[in-house]
Design brief:
Layout (H helix, E strand, L loop, with lengths): L2 H14 L6 H13 L4 H13 L3 H24 L2
Helix pairs in contact: 1-4, 3-4
């Protein structure tokens, strides 16, 4: 995982804590996924795969995280233009 990806993940986790049902599980799952990804695109793809195979409540938590993560990525990308 690169520094930018790590920053984005940690900042997004801080943003979503109030909306997540199982924050401990979500944090652990995000950390596990991030260890397998070196790029933002890889992380998003792995997270989408995990969403497909997880239970309903946890799926919702991961979707919330993914939505906020994409917004943060888009915000940083637009600042770079």
């Amino acid at each position: 995982m690169n520094n930018l990806l790590g920053y984005l993940i940690n900042a997004t986790l801080e943003d979503v804590i109030p909306y997540i049902s199982e924050i401990k599980w979500t944090r652990e799952k995000i950390e596990e996924i991030s260890k397998r990804a070196n790029k933002i695109e890889e992380f998003i793809a792995a997270l989408e795969e995990e969403i497909e195979r997880t239970s309903y409540t946890r799926k919702t938590d991961l979707k919330i995280f993914l939505t906020y993560f994409r917004k943060r990525v888009k915000s940083i990308a637009s600042k770079g233009k």
